Amino acid sequence: MERLQKVIAQAGITSRRKAEDYITDGRVKVNGKTVKELGSKVGINDQVEVDGIPLTKEEPVYYLLYKPKQVISAVADDKNRKVVTDFFPEVKARIFPVGRLDYDTSGLLLLTNDGEFANKMMHPKSNVKKTYIAKVTGKPSAEKLQLLRHGIELDGVKTAPAKVNVKSSNKKGNSSIIEIVIHEGRNHQIRRMFEKIGHPVEKLKREQYAMLDLLGMNPGETRPLKPKEVKQLKDLA
């Protein structure tokens, strides 16, 4: 017997965390009956439906996308804007993004139909490091950069220590290019961190996700992850 949310995630519908919302919202049926209890377990012979569609287990797939700016990190958008799954027209599996990048943020994003994998990658205790390059207004002082390195309070909770390195500064353009490495994934985190120290982000790109990078890729391009890469990510998490 397996927990219902785990079965939904393994079927490639969504992450386990989101599957819990599906259950409590009454979108899941087991053997024809709506189930809203998160502790529910199902066996191999139970028929599970999400939004009236029976689950069928897909082979897990894993992809890397160089997300362009002005693209939504979702599988659909009610405003008809471009979403990340639009870059995978040939993929039949029900893939979804692992975490998200903001609408105006470009860079490396993973997509999969493996909810268990996605859940591990996004877990707060995950050791997956994410490297960003930010163009910010002005030149932050050494003291302000130390605040980022030691952690800065957002919504009453201190961020984990970040690695911060100034790549260049442009006095004439009143801007700086800064590399920042974090392992958290809070909402708009990088932008909010720089906003807090008085140097708002003008441009943001995620260049690395753990050992993965975008070398040789252009915005909008995709590639499947190698089995070795998937194993490395799982080991990190």
Give a written overview of the molecule.
The protein has 3 domains: 2-54, Roll (Structural Genomics Hypothetical 15.5 Kd Protein In mrcA-pckA Intergenic Region, Chain A); 62-124 and 215-225, Pseudouridine synthase I, catalytic domain, N-terminal subdomain (Alpha-Beta Plaits, 2-Layer Sandwich); 130-209, Alpha-Beta Plaits. 22% of the residues lie in helices and 30% in strands. It has 6 helices and 17 strands. The chain has helices at residues 4-10, 16-24, 115-122, 142-150, 189-196, 227-236; strands spanning 2-3, 28-30, 33-34, 41-42, 48-50, 53-54, 62-67, 96-97, 105-112, 130-137, 153-154, 157-158, 163-170, 175-182, 201-209, 212-213, 222-224. β2 and β3 form a beta hairpin. α1 (4-10) crosses α2 (16-24). The longest helix has 10 residues, at 227-236. The mean pLDDT is 93. Belongs to the pseudouridine synthase RsuA family. It comes from Marinococcus luteus. Residues 223-237 have a biased composition (Basic and acidic residues). InterPro entries: PsdUridine_s_RsuA/RluB/E/F_cat, PsdUridine_synth_cat_dom_sf, PsdUridine_synth_RsuA/RluA, PsdUridine_synth_RsuA/RluB/E/F, PsdUridine_synth_RsuA/RluB_CS, RsuA_PseudoU_synthase, S4_RNA-bd, S4_RNA-bd_sf.
